[in-house]
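Thought: the user wants the 3D structure for the chain below. I'll pass the sequence to the structure tool as-is, report back what it returns, then summarize two notable features.
Action: structure_tool
Action Input:
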Amino acid sequence: MTTPPAPAPEGNVITRTVQRATDLLHRQRARRPWLDHLVHAGGHYNRAQGDLLASGVTYYIFLALFPVVLLLASVVGFVLAGDARLQLELVDAIREAVPGQTGADLANSVLGAIDARSATGLVGLVGFLLVGLGAVDKLRVGMDIVWRGEPDQPDFLQDRLKDLLVLLGLAGAGALSIALTTGTTAASSFLFDALGIDEVPGFFLLTAALGIGLALVGDTLVFLWVLKGVPNTPHRARVLLPGAVFGAVGFELLKVLGGYYLNLLSGNVTVSTFGGFVGVIIWINVVARFAFFTACWTATLPAVEHLDAQEPLGPAAPTRLPDVVLVDERGPRPGPARLAAGLVGAGALMGAAAAGLVPAALRRSHRLGPRRRPRDGGAADA
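Observation:
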């Protein structure tokens, strides 16, 4: 018996190509669980409108860069205020880099910023808090939508307090990450120099691997706070750790791509001038999108989905059979007291009937007496 040929796909070339690609994707998802999880996370990202959520975060973070610049200028002003030699070196470097009247005006602006370092720092701090809280609010609302499908009920004071705590947590996680990376790198460099192994061939591979490992540890701490602290998820950190590692690895790859992009722009002055701002916006938007995709990837982990559905991990338990309802077709039964009384009554009636029937039977038998048998001669005479 021959197998009938498969029906040819209908439609034009584009329709057939799309159908074949869809079938190929379905087969690959069935064979590779990691690809199925990735596609599942992408669908969750689209349903949560991750691109729209990332755009709001991008807007506020880009605005927050200007107060950050003011804060940095204030810090530099406090550092340079006590050292006249550093101020002169900075002014000379500005005039050499930007010749003419423009360089002189820029140098005077820097000296004015140093003199107004306190006011600059205050304005930068207030602006950073206002804009930073807005960025954190957009991030928190977006994470709530990713994890719970909708944001929490709005409460102005409570939401501002949450945003402040999240902002401080992000700042603390970022500072701890930088301190961990910088401190461990400095300590390892000092140790390698003391041991004299920095001149060994291939030593740069060890230092590069150490730097990447420390960066991954720091990024994992930041993403763990983004997944746990920002949306206030009920899951433990151990359950969310795979998502934090996924975010850390992806963020390091994005940093490599961002560095390659900056190297491309550095060769052209015009492109670097205008492309710098565009590049910063694109970079912030890509990182924000990846942060929301990381949350979607973590939310669709099998362990997290089982916990959300309150289902135990492992094979499903056997289906419990339905309870069988026993129906008593004899009708309602009397209670113990009524049953005992009924039995006693029935016994009394039966006893009374027996007491009346037995004497009557005895009297009847006595009245009839024994029946006599006839004689042989009597029968002949008759």
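Final Answer: Structure generated. Residues 148 and 231 are 9 Å apart (CA to CA). The two ends are 110 Å apart (CA to CA).
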